[in-house]
Every structure is written in C-alpha cells, then in structure tokens.
Predict the 3D structure of the following.
Amino acid sequence: MAWYNGVHRRQERLKEGALSVTESTIEETKKQMRMQAQGAMALNVAFIGVVNGLFETVCRLGSPMADEIAQNLTLDRGYVMRWADAAFAFGFLDREGERFRLTEKGDLMRPSHPQTLMPVAVGSVLSTHMADRAAELMHTGERPGEKVLGERKNILPWFGAMLEANFSGLFEREICPSLSVFKEIDRKGGTVVDLGCGNGWYLRSLARRCSGIRGIGLDGFEENIRRATQLAREQGLSDRLEFRVGDIKTFAHGGPVDMIAMNRALHHVWDEKETVFRILRDHLAKNGAVVIWEPAWPENPVDLREPRKRPLAVQNLGEHVQGNHLLRPEEIAEAFREAGMTPEIHLFSEGAEAVVVGRIA
C-alpha cells in the first residue's frame, strides 16, 4: 500500500509539473502574440503618418507642436494631437513638453528617405484590408477582382510607391547585374516594353543602369501613366521613356521589340496564359527576350514556414480575393515552352522572387 501511495504521489507531482510547463508555454505564447499585436498597432500609426504627410512635415519643421503640424497640413488639430501621442508611444516621435521630433525609426517612415520603411506600413494595412474581405467572402466564394484595391482610397495611391520602395533596390543591386539580357539590350540600344508598368519604377530603374535603352510603359490606369510620366520627367529620363494607357491585348509598336517585361503582373492574367504568351512571342524581335518577374510560389508547401516566404501565403490569400493566384516558377517556364520559347529560371531573395527569361527557340 505504501508502495502504491508513493507511486501515486510521484504521478501527481509529474502531472503538476507537466501542467506548470504547459501553463508557462501558454503564457509565453500569449506574450508573443500581444507583442505581435502591438507591432500591428505601430504600423497602423505609421500608415496614418505616411499617407497624411505627418512624418515629412515633422522632419521639415524640426521640432513642432501638434498645432503647428495640423496648421501646416490643414488637418484637424484633435486628430493630429492624438496621432502624435500614439507615434510617441510607439517610438516614432520623441517629445520635449508639447514639441515633437522624429526618432530614427520615425525618420525611416518618411517616404522620401532613401531606405524608407513606408512599404511596411502600407503593406500591413493592405494585408488587413484583404484579410477583412477574405473573411467576408469566404462565406460566398465570391472573388470580386482587382477592384478591391480601390476600396481603400488611402491605399491605391501608394501602391506603386510601395512596390518601388520594396523592389527597385533588389532590381538594381542584384537582378539587373545578374542577367545578361539587360546588357545585351543596352549594347544594341534596344526598346523595352513594360506591360502593367504602374508608376514606371521598373523602366526608370532600368534606364538608370542602362543608358542605351529606350522604354515604353503601358498600364490600364490613367493615374499610373500620369504619375509615371511625371516621375520620369523629374528624374531626367523622359527623353528615353514614354508611358501610355494600354495593356497586353491592345499595345502596338512600329515593329518587334527587343524586350518585353512583365513585373508581378502575369498572375493577374494567368487564366488567359495561352493568349498572353502568344502575344508576347509575336511582338518579340529576333534575339529578343521576354522577362517575367513574379513572387515565387514554392514547390513544397513546407517552405512557407520559412520567414522569408511567409508573406507569400498572406499575399496569395489576397490574390484569391482578386481572382488570381501566385505561380510556381516552373509553371511559367512550362508556359514559355508551350509557346515555343526557351526559358531560364533565376531565383532571388532566398527563393522568394523569380525572374523567368524566355527566348524564341
């Protein structure tokens, strides 16, 4: 009996110990989730500062009071005061009495900063919007298309700038120097057509590195064409770059072009891929190339657990709302083969970004 009681007590202690470990683990998980929630709150505060010009204005004024910020931007004083409190709480602003100034983190949120973190704030709010729409539409299966981007009037104007800040550096540092096709087009003084050009960031980045190329950007949104034209003019590139309203089905040029680019746009027209790849091939000059840049959906779903690739899963949920889905690089390569072209796959950003180059076989 004594033996039984001793074993029973040990079992109870083990249970208590296991329970203690479990409770400790749960509490740690809760703590981590609360910290992640605070991170999301911080990005919400940053988003307000980005789209309303608050960070840039504080930088320009130096050490203003909330009243001065509000007056300078013709914004409501009460909202600005409470935003300044929130920006101080999350470390974007420091304060001395009633005056505020940017911290290093706040300075990085300025859209004009060379290493701006603006796209993190804009992307976070965009993801929240898409999550809200997905939660609603999951009940009906409806996929309303790309018009959902226009449902939030503060997001759409920043979409092109977000892509530029996220990807122009990668393009100029790694992608452009790595692919021989850009050097070839530059040497021959070739013409590049960018389909779905947005604010023109890709052609502007390419033109800065390749002084011999001429570029034509096409986009379906007049506002994007207006902005692309303005930025090219401001950067002294308008003599080599031209932007027009159009799309892959309507563009026409005086003859075949040396390079056709599609950047993060192919998955938007993938349901018509046979037509798309035929048009790409038919408009290509001899020895020319089609260069397609897409987020790289992994072959193995387990890879989505990798920190660099987690955002792909969230993006793919948002793409589903828009009627699209992300593509595996090999899917793109196979579409090139079916169109009678030879593909080359190049991976960047730890395999999260794919550039697939196709040439006429």
Observations:
- The mean pLDDT is 92.
- The longest strand covers residues 284-295.
- The first helix runs from residue 2 to 51.
